[in-house]
Amino acid sequence: MPVSLTIDGKQRTLAVAEDMPLLWALRDIAGVTGVKFGCGAGLCGACSVLVDGQRLFACQTPVADVAGKAVTTIEGLTGQPLGQALAAAWEELDVVQCGYCQPGQIVAAAALLKANPKPDDAAIDEGMSGNICRCGTYNRIRAAIHRAADTIKA
Amino acid sequence: MTTPIATPSRRAFLAGSAVLASALVVPLHRALSSVPAAQLAANGYLAVLPDGAVSLALPKTEMGQGIMTALTMLVAEELGLAPSAIKVSIPPADRARFAPIDTTTGGSTSIRELWKPLRQAAANARAALVDAAARQWKVMPDGLTLADGAVVNPASGKRLGFAALVADAAAHVPTDATPTPRSAWKVIGKDTRRLDSADKVRGTAQFGIDVKVPGMKIATLAQSPVFGGKLAGHNTAAAKAVPGVADVIALDDCLFVTADSLWTAKKGLEAASPTWNEGANAGLDQAQVVSALDAAVAKPGVTAKAEGDLAQARAGAAKTLEALYHQPFLAHATMEPGNCTAHVTPQGVQVWTGTQVPSDCRAAAARVLGLGEDKVQVHNFLMGGGFGRRLETDMVERTVSLAAKVPYPVKLVWTREEDIQHDMVRPAYADRISASLDQAGKVTAWEHRIAGSAVMARFLGDKFNGVDDDAVDGAIAPLYPAKARLVTFKQVESAMPTGWWRGVGGLRNTFVIESFADELALAAGQDPLAWRLAQITDPRARAVLQKAAAEAGWGKALPKGEGLGLAVLHIWDTCLAAVAHVKVDAQKQILVPQVTVAVDCGPAINPLGVKAQIEGGVTFALSAALYGGVTLEKGRIAQSNYNDVRPLRMNEAPRVITHVMPTDNAPGGMGEPPAAVIAPAVANALFAATGKRVRQVPLQAGFEAA
């Protein structure tokens, strides 16, 4: 059964089973591969997307649950001021290594900053605890979130 | 058919492939003639294109370690360019193009192998351009410089862009130009941001798993849960009843389902409900593996190193210590699960994947399909983590086996569970180590017996002599001199398939040796730092040890339940020391709030990247040091996802303080060393904090049992 939703500002109708997780509807059907598959079990955060400003694990969200809603992925987020600030901070602090988890990290950081524009270290650690980075870039992610928060405030 | 190329390089690749014939091309092997062959394990391709652009086809692969940036910096230095001005591409696999050198990326070898030849090639290109400009201007080449893609005559102020010089320069390329001396470096040794960030932070970087080929289906697979088992039965009709499922393909030890999405393929696979003949390994448990390892170190194995008279050195000793250490099988659990895309046609096969071994993948696909390598194209991509997992070709082999049986391109993706349960894991090891001390606490006799799977044996075949040279790396010549030394290795295989894991042999040896060094210091009644400094004669190792200790405040008073521990190594041509600060809470949870690292990796091509490797390597390996280990239960891996293969999360990750100490030594590797040093530093800090010596990884489980 077709499911209609907005993906990064574009209205899309996807011919998918309603119980297909949003992750696969995005990656395999809609072709939005900026959203990453890491665990398929809500454990790693690589598939994070924003729906109504809230971070969701796309691998745990049936596509029917977001019918009619606006889904923002890393690809759309980085076209917005908040996403641009985060991307710039990530680049300035040379955060990425392999880079595979970073779209999910940046989406999670955006949700964090929407809820708490000036988080301290503890709030960042808490807000980012759903995201795994195997390369171990956590120190720089934390610093980049502070940098982005400062940029947006300025 | 489209040929997706990693995003940062797509434009460069397309440009380069069209015009190489008329470009000033500097094949690396020409530049290598002055370099001893033994130092080389890679080859590359550098070109100045007719439009004046400089292109570099990466001879090594990018998996996060920053080699794309560091290698480009070497070229940029010689050619007077910003690294970002060079067009970097990830080349398709082509062993002949890069011959005689392999394109494998692993073992912290990239900079060590390419440091001389790549700068030599770029220096030759530079000299050719300068000479061409001198001929045009009818001046002597001395004094001409390069800047912003042009040759400049400072005396006259004249400039000639590379484009105007390429044709003439290409006919006169020297082989022995002198690379820029250290005193004149403008790029090497300067903090340089990665070249691949922009796409990676916007979700536009293309990893192997992101490949899109027109008409492609997406597949997943189930392999026999028990190693060595065979497929007994499955229900094709039930799988095909799932809307979106295309085909069900069975091999003797594996079942594939192809579909419109990975989720649909997975549903189809569940519906197919494969059953298995589990075979001879169905009763195998971890305890049997460990028993076999323990038995193997009860006596010496095959000699890796023997010097001096061990019995004599022991005879007069004041003290002799012996200890048994254990390390587990480790999964790689790269964030990007296993995947590969292939399309088999009558003309040959196209393969798209992210790999550390592009040439081996090409050979593997050819072997599986019974084709010549000329019929196989392997397009390589950025990797969502390598850590040694992508040194294997099993993903390509599985994928082309499937692709040969379907008429469409197919992307095969491992679920996370399948990825972990069919990893090629870091071997489990037992080490029995003993040492004798004289009255002053100096080592007289040293014996180290190592037992485990020999990964090298799989690659060497009949040439394997009984000693895994990687597994004994760092053990045959440790930092601690002794009058007599015996180091042995005993190969002990189980059903578990094994492979390399970041830190490789040096990591396993550093855990044992640096933990045992603290035990020896204690036996000698000395402080761990003081004892090491009394033993270690290697000046570079002493320097990083003293630096890390000083920066970490070694010797300072700490609250009860806290401690500092150190470890030092000199492997991969790098000296690195770490001091870990450990706290133990009331629930016996080991916390590592801070790690201080000092490194001498020679000139440190990109200090910003060196720091990233230290921060990342420490954190990556700390996950394994505290919680790592997959176990065999009834012939299968008991763990399956990030809940039981547990990487550290942000709140658990240490603050990593790095001190890069640039020296004139030849450049050393930086991927492995930071990973290799953390487990013993934490084990030693844990002892300082609690008085408990934990001789096993994972440390948390060992501490709880202590």
From TrEMBL, chain A:
Top-level lineage group: Bacteria
Keyword annotations from UniProtKB, A to Z:
2Fe-2S, Iron, Iron-sulfur, Metal-binding, Oxidoreductase
Q: Does the keyword Ribonucleoprotein apply?
A: no
Q: Which PANTHER family match?
A: BLR6218 PROTEIN, OXIDOREDUCTASE WITH IRON-SULFUR SUBUNIT
Q: Which GO terms describe its molecular function?
A: isoquinoline 1-oxidoreductase activity
Q: What class of enzyme is it?
A: oxidoreductase
Write out the coiled-coil annotation as residue ranges. none
InterPro entries attached to this UniProt entry: 2Fe-2S-bd, 2Fe-2S-bd_dom_sf, 2Fe-2S_ferredoxin-like_sf, 2Fe-2S_ferredoxin-type, 2Fe2S_fd_BS, Beta-grasp_dom_sf, Diverse_Oxidoreductases
- Please report the stretch or stretches of sequence annotated as the 2Fe-2S ferredoxin-type domain: 1-77
State what protein this is by name: Isoquinoline 1-oxidoreductase alpha subunit
Kindly give the SUPFAM superfamilies that the UniProt entry links to this protein.
Answer: 2Fe-2S ferredoxin-like, CO dehydrogenase ISP C-domain like
Q: Does the keyword Ribonucleoprotein apply?
A: no
The EC number(s) given in the record are 1.3.99.16
